[in-house]
Amino acid sequence: MLYMLSSWLISAVGFMLAAYLLPGFHVANFWAALGAAAVLGVCNAIIRPIVILFTLPLTLLTLGLFLLVINGLVLALAVWLVPGVAVANLGVAIVAAIVIAIVNAVLGAVLG
Q1: Do residues 97 and 69 make contact, with C-beta atoms less than 8 angstroms apart?
Q2: CA-CA-CA-CA torsion for 22, 28, 29, 30, nearest 10 degrees?
Q3: Is the pTM of this model over 0.85?
Q4: How far apart, in whole angstroms, are the C-alpha atoms of residue 99 and residue 29?
Q5: Do residues 62 and 112 touch, judged by C-beta distance below 8 A?
Q6: What is the pLDDT of residue 1?
Q7: Alpha carbons 81 and 94: distance in angstroms, whole number
Q8: With the C-alpha atoms ordered 56, 77, 4, 96, is the resulting torsion angle positive or negative?
Q9: For residue 27, what pLDDT is reported?
Q10: CA–CA gap between residue 1 and residue 56 (Å, rounded)
Q11: DSSP labels for 14-78?
Q12: Between helices 30-54 and 2-21, what is the axis angle to 10°?
């Protein structure tokens, strides 16, 4: 339970950092970031595996690079569902997904 809460907070921090670094990504406040992190977690658990399964041939053809597009699309869907969070376009969503993933990896490793 504590791991899930810390992962949720780390994802929210990732959202805030992505909003700070990327001009096309906007988060109104930390509460919106918490909501977006929760919705992103649900989308990653339910929708992302289905999309990866259906796009497996394209993912294999691009040697896995299409997974970046899938991550951006899932992030764009999560942002679309949460008020107070906005993304300008798919390119910004892909870069924001990369920033959030790096923050999750680094803070997850540091905090254990």
Answers
A1: no
A2: -60
A3: yes
A4: 18
A5: no
A6: 81
A7: 17
A8: positive
A9: 97
A10: 32
A11: HHHHHHHH-TTEEE-SHHHHHHHHHHHHHHHHHHHHHHHHHTHHHHHHTTTTHHHHHHHHHHHHH
A12: 100
